[in-house]
Request: fold
Amino acid sequence: MTLPAFRVLQPRTVEDAVRMLDEHRSDAMVIAGGTDVIPNLQMRLFTPRVLVDVKPLRELAVIEFSARQGLHIGATATLTHILETPWMRDKFAVLASAIGTVAGPLQRNMGTIGGNLCLETRCRWYNQSHFWRQSLGGCLKKDGDICHVAPGGKFCWAAWSGDSAPAFLALDAELEIASLSGTRRVPLREFYKNDGMDRIALARNELLTAVHVPAHMAGRRGVYQKLRVRDSIDYPLAGVAVAMEVDSAGICKDARVALSAVNPAPMLVTQAGESLIGRKWSLELAERVAHAAIQTGKPLTTSGSTPVYRRDMVRVFTRRALEETWKNGHGSA
Amino acid sequence: MNKELTHLRVNGEEREIAITPNRLLLDALREDLGLTGSKRGCDDSSCGCCAVLIDGTPMLSCVALAASYEGREITTVEGLGGPGELDPVQEGYAEMGGAQCGYCTPGFMIATKALLDRNPDPTMDEIREALSGNLCRCTGYMQIYESVKYAIEKLRAKSATQAPATR
Reply:
């Protein structure tokens, strides 16, 4: 396949970059690692006239932790850079666990955390070549007016397919977003719109610059469990992230559970916290929370696997993730 | 689209090519520079056939825009050995049957080279992890792991002869 024609702009500062985005608006796309953008351009899912290449912006590649400010990861930090940060696994176990499952090592050497948090939603009817899509008359998300997943529906179910977002949700992260009018902070859970067509609350003239995790989240136990056909390279068919604080008596002080790949957005299982806080580990409790998780995940036939299997694996993975973090103390600092 | 003069540093040589901004690094290497060792497999960043080293880190040239890699040190499979001699990694793949159809082999060699440059004595798990971004449809991977082990032994023997006991 070939790429559409475009110009590449190379900003030297974040201000440069947002000025370029503001000037070109819907004609422009941001590119960093390229692992999501380039295949999508090859398939003609987008035909921007301008790519703003933010990868060389060193100021955006910083990874820092302080007991006051918490964790700061710049948007162009590569996934490998995050994984190889020596204290990451001890302080933010769920994040290291999730990022370790993203694609394979070669993709992680290129892909950035900003790109992973802004990943395009995926569907078997959408992530196909132009020719393939055209043969079916397109779909709601691209060049058509019918949904092949839910015929008759007017809502796009393309699935959120990133692995780091559920981990960051479990850590109550915030995003830093820059535009010409300055910088704003937005809680990660408000960033995702749960609409396959319009996935994130990021305007065309805005740039995601960093992700923050509050300091009190450091040291939480946690793990991410991912369903996929192969143990490498694949996008998730379902994903469960758990981050938990457990006291010396084994009592849960705080817990957050988040899901990926079973909705158009990564989502927190809102009932999980109240069911778990103040309790001791038991298999029945884990099963109960696992059942609650199924209520949050609504997979449809957007991938090669079946919704029934993916739903059931959300249950199994939630139970396993709770067991691993709580009972076995996995990821405890 | 206008072509622009682009300077790439490939296998230690400065190369100048006129390419459009949407030229992929893989196409620049294969078609503009005649370095056909790197292969186009999946074309969507999911197989590892097109892997090259960028400043020593293995990356996928099929999702890299060539012009974005100006000033970086690019190493393709052609750049692994010296003139007339094979790199121990290449020798390993040749000796242990690490290549069958050979299409994925350059990508595997690049990933292996990157691993052994950073970690000359990897565990089996580390080898598997380092090669987990590369797909092979022929060998079943066992001969590939044997090839890596061969290369490790070869490198160990080489460093032993090059650096006689200093302790």
